[in-house]
Write a structure and sequence with these properties.
By secondary structure, the protein is an alpha/beta fold. It contains 7 helices and 7 strands.
Length: 245
């Protein structure tokens, strides 16, 4: 039944709401009547979403690298959440000899640790509904190696293990935890890849195109909706056939 895919009336905490995949998720979910608490650093985008979806969008300016900002997020939420989508992400393309402690720490903090800490504290403060659904964005990079991608690969590999651990611990509470593993999606993050390199990489995708942010938003909606109510600890891989080879 198509009604099982509906998200109208659900309240979702969304990180990375002001750019890339997160921004598309915010717009898509809001247009369907979901209430979004959006976390991001771009104040103008937060204000724009609030203006366009008055009453449904609640923006919180926050930097996930700062622990005090994570506390601010938790303290500002006074609604019961039906879901969390951890879409915030950062990538630093560096060869091994150029990976600094600062790059490593920032990548792990934004891509992995902040999602764990938000989930932990929201659960401890009983701000998650009984049948809440939590979705983490991982990547095919978690087990598809590429030169200069070590810190990003490690952070997304950690997300895979994190999802499985959270899913097992929270299952008795009726809370589901799943993930999405995109291949290359054209966003601001991929601007670090040259046009020549993108053309070369495209030949590795059997479907002949890179993914769109809308492709990922649709997968996240499935995981948030009741259509996936018997699914936990799993990942949907959307990669245009990249890892078939």
């Amino acid at each position: 039944m198509l009604s099982q895919f509906e998200i109208a009336g659900k309240t979702i905490l969304l990180t990375g709401a002001t750019s890339g995949i997160g921004y598309t998720i915010a717009q898509d979910f809001l247009s369907q009547g979901a209430q979004i608490i959006g976390i991001g650093r771009n104040v103008e985008v937060l204000e724009s979403l609030k203006k366009d979806f008055d009453g449904l969008f609640h923006g919180i300016e926050a930097d996930l690298r700062e622990r005090s900002h994570l506390t601010k997020i938790i303290d500002s939420i006074d609604l019961e959440l039906n879901g969390i989508v951890h879409s915030a992400g950062v990538i630093h393309r560096r060869p091994l000899k150029m990976i600094t402690s600062e790059i490593w720490d920032e990548t792990l903090q934004i891509n992995t640790t902040s999602g764990l800490e938000l989930t932990r504290d929201l659960f401890k403060k009983k701000k998650l509904s009984k049948e809440a659904s939590i979705v983490f964005l991982s990547s095919v990079a978690s087990d598809y190696a590429a030169i200069g991608n070590i810190s990003y690969m490690a952070s997304k590999g950690a997300v895979k293990s994190l999802v499985k651990g959270l899913a097992l611990e929270l299952a008795s509470k009726g809370i589901r935890v799943n993930g999405v593993e995109p291949g290359l999606i054209k966003t601001a993050l991929t601007s670090q890849v040259s046009d020549d390199e993108l053309k070369e990489v495209l030949s590795d995708y059997p479907l002949g195109r890179f993914g769109s942010t809308t492709d990922i938003a649709h997968a996240v909606q499935y995981l948030i909706s009741s259509a996936s109510s018997w699914m936990t600890g799993q990942f949907l891989r959307l990669d245009g056939g990249l890892t078939l080879k």
